[in-house]
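Summary of Year 1 activities. Much of the first year was spent building the evaluation harness for sequence design. The harness presents a backbone, in tokenized form, and records the residue chosen at every position. We chose the following record to illustrate the format because it has been used consistently in internal testing since the harness was completed.
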């Protein structure tokens, strides 16, 4: 019996066709298609997670205000309903405690970072205590009041002065900030806007052949 000899180009062609056929056989699996049950389960899970997020994330960041000698710093937490609390950390003693704003040390500096997040408001302190530590600006019944530092908000040791009268609980002032020279207070007169709704139709509802119209609030550019 004579052995058959194939030309070298023909041999490479046969090997290439065999390899291509094998690769094609490996790729014939159909793409994954989730079932209706799986899709609905994922939508329900996403809805639950979305409902848990609003007003549930507190104490999310630490912006330290260090003492000049680097031995301690304080920072502000935001609690439920944006209520602030001030935490003083002594890094030498390894202690941490809550402190009222008026009793925080004065020889602290703000962590300026690298300056890449500059804004036009960067020169204003974001705390209600004035830089010279003489006054405290705060909100009461939606309006801006200023009292001497060290006095209670009820005016027991210094009568507060009301600087606005057109604020209320539905349209309050907020986000107060002092100028570096402690001569001015700036803030926002807030006019809340109700979120517009987006609508969607559930087309596959059990027990019926009719679609069901639903809606939920959703912010969009310009709202």
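For this record, the design step produced the sequence shown next.
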């Amino acid at each position: 019996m004579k052995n058959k000899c194939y030309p070298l180009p023909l041999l490479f062609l046969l090997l290439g066709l065999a390899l291509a056929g094998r690769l094609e056989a490996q790729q014939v699996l159909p793409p994954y298609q989730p079932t209706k049950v799986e899709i609905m389960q994922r939508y329900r899970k996403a809805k639950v997670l979305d409902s848990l997020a609003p007003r549930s994330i507190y104490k999310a960041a630490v912006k330290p205000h260090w003492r000049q000698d680097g031995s301690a710093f304080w920072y502000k937490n935001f609690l439920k309903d944006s209520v602030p609390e001030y935490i003083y950390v002594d890094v030498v003693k390894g202690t941490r405690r809550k402190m009222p704003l008026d009793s925080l040390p004065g020889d602290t500096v703000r962590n300026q970072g690298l300056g890449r997040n500059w804004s036009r408001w960067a020169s204003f302190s974001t705390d209600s205590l004035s830089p010279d530590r003489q006054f405290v600006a705060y909100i009461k019944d939606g309006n801006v009041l200023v009292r001497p530092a060290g006095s209670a908000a009820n005016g027991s040791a210094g009568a507060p002065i009301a600087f606005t009268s057109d604020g209320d609980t539905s349209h309050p002032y907020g986000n107060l900030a002092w100028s570096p020279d402690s001569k001015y207070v700036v803030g926002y007169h807030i006019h809340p806007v109700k979120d517009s709704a987006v609508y969607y139709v559930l087309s596959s509802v059990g027990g019926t052949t009719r679609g069901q119209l639903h809606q939920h609030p959703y912010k969009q550019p310009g709202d």
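Residues 110-125 have pLDDT under 50 and may be disordered. Quantitative recovery figures across the full test set are reported in Table 2.
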